[in-house]
Amino acid sequence: MADRLSPLEPVYRPGNHGNLAGGAGVVLGERQPGSIVQLAVWSGQERPALAVMLDVTGMRLPDGAGSGSAREDIAAFGFAPGRFLLVSEAEGLADRLRAALSEELGTVTDLSHGRTAFRIAGAKAEWVLAKLFAIDFALAAFPTGAGRSTSHHDIFAQIQRSGPEQFDLYVFRSFARSFWHTLCRAAEETGYEVR
Amino acid sequence: MLIPCPYCGQRDVSEFTYQGDGNRTRPNPSSTDRAAWNAYVYDRTNPAGEHREIWQHSGGCRAHIVVVRNTLTHAVVASSMARARTRADRREPT
Ligand SMILES: [Zn+2]
Asked: Which of A122, B43, B60, B86 is 20 to 30 A from A189 in CA distance terms?
């Protein structure tokens, strides 16, 4: 297994930061999943393509725009019409998916080196993210497992709610360090712990 | 202003890029009809009222959508996927 290098390395400071009067309101961290993969499905081929995804990953997505499912070892969600992001702790997911998916159904793109994965968890996670993105983070509007495509200024982000108080964010790797600064700054008010 | 993306739902206008008048029909690329090209490039209806226009949800799902917007009030009365219209124009099965 190759070493995984982080674009955050020079600025990643584990420990407690910001306003800790009420304890840390959120925990921030970088995840380093083994695979980040985009599945793009040709028009009208969603059902057979998602059946292949189920075969390969065991992930079954509910119907509907932005629907998804999150487990600790693997997560998937729709982020655009006919497009899905799959994130796995295991390496090699793109190869396994590509081998199983006919070109008649869609295409597989390995983004493992192109995205940086952040996790924000805690009672104030919705509050901190709502400072950055103009979307509704309330559980009723953004249920667990669901995904959203949005942006903070020009930094594009794909966000999945992976728990009632937990979100995973996928940001272009070249923007990751800048976005990490922004995320930390937004969390100063509530206090944050970096793990 | 909020724009309803058919995929993402209501989103702030800052996530979208305006792609122009949605009433134009592009001539066949091999056409040498100068009047048709002139109309495509320059003629705009510019209504004070409901206007059909193309937007891209560039800061979201990146889909192109057809929006009917009232230019006086900014009220959006309809939105749909541009790809659906393209398909209908080409009479392709969806
Ligand atoms: Zn959208």
From this structure: B60
